[in-house]
Design a protein that fits this description.
With about 290 residues, the chain is of the alpha/beta class. The protein contains 12 helices and 10 strands.
Length: about 290
């Protein structure tokens, strides 16, 4: 075998998630995934977008082994998913999911017990578990209600505990399914800050969201799902300037880009001016071109 062929057969060390020809059909015959092909790089910030029912949540549950596809392959960090009991424990340590509704994730009597459950199941010594749990609670500012029953927490508190559940396992990949859903602005900002910190720490983050403003600012790449398929993937500017694509997936262009387009059409910004992602960047661009 020549050197080029050998390199082609070796896994790309920069790829964290590789999905080939993924199909998943529910027991009632609903075909949720219909041939997903996707690669996600290590440390990449990926916004997964699309209409409700487009297959996003089903895709996530396939990624960490809760669902097993009828057809296709999933590799995490160069290794195919292992569906043995031991293999699934490792997959769920590496790939953490924070569900849209934390009530579907939290079940222990207290916050401390909740966050401890997963790492104890992995066989870590109790003292080490206690240190890990205390550290995560401190980082997410939930230590003050560590002894509180999870069902007495507010929505924002539950969401942070659900994130702590995942982070204490020290995953390589964190999946957040509509993390700011049903939260007030204060708690939504707190969750955004946590997501930003995850990204800065080098964790690969997949974020399901309908918030185009957030996706524009945050994401390295946007993946659009439609009827169980990847309709398109690309940089935010490639996605948000495709009017037909946005209409098909029921998404709107971010407000800052609408204003940017309007200023160009009115001749107040030159064509080809650097695309802003925030209102502050747009104001600076406008002032500097006057």
């Amino acid at each position: 075998m020549d050197e080029q062929n050998r390199r082609n057969q070796q896994p790309d060390s920069d790829i964290m998630v590789k999905v080939d020809g993924l199909y998943y059909t529910y027991a009632d015959g609903t075909q949720a995934l219909r041939g997903i092909d996707l690669e996600i790089k290590k440390g990449e910030k990926v916004a997964i977008m699309g209409s409700n029912g487009s297959g996003k949540s089903t895709f996530f549950l396939n990624l960490n082994g809760v669902f097993r596809p009828q057809k296709g392959n999933i590799s995490i960090n160069g290794k195919p998913l292992d569906y043995s009991k031991k293999g699934l424990l490792e997959v769920r340590r590496q790939v953490g999911i924070v569900f849209q509704d934390p009530d579907n994730q939290l079940f222990s009597a207290s916050v401390t017990q909740e966050i401890s459950f997963g790492v104890l199941n992995l066989g870590f010594p109790k003292e080490e578990v206690r240190e890990k749990v205390d550290q995560i609670m401190d980082e997410l500012h939930i230590t003050e209600f560590k002894d509180k029953p999870t069902h007495f927490l507010s929505g924002g508190q539950k969401k942070r505990v659900a994130i702590a559940d995942v982070l204490v396992m020290q995953p390589s990949i964190v999946i957040l399914d509509e993390p700011a859903s049903a939260l007030d602005p204060k708690h939504a900002r707190m969750i955004d800050e946590i997501v930003d910190e995850l990204s800065r720490s080098g964790i690969t983050v997949l974020l399901s969201t309908h918030d185009v403003e957030r996706a524009l600012i945050w994401a390295d790449k946007i993946v659009l799902f439609d009827e169980g398929k990847v309709l398109k993937e690309g940089k935010p500017e490639e996605i948000f300037f495709d009017e037909a694509l946005l209409e098909k997936t029921n998404l709107e262009k971010p407000s800052v880009l609408k204003i940017y387009d309007g200023l160009i059409k009115e001749g107040l910004l030159p064509k080809g001016a650097c695309m802003p992602k925030t209102a502050e960047e747009l104001i600076t661009l406008f002032v500097n071109t006057k």
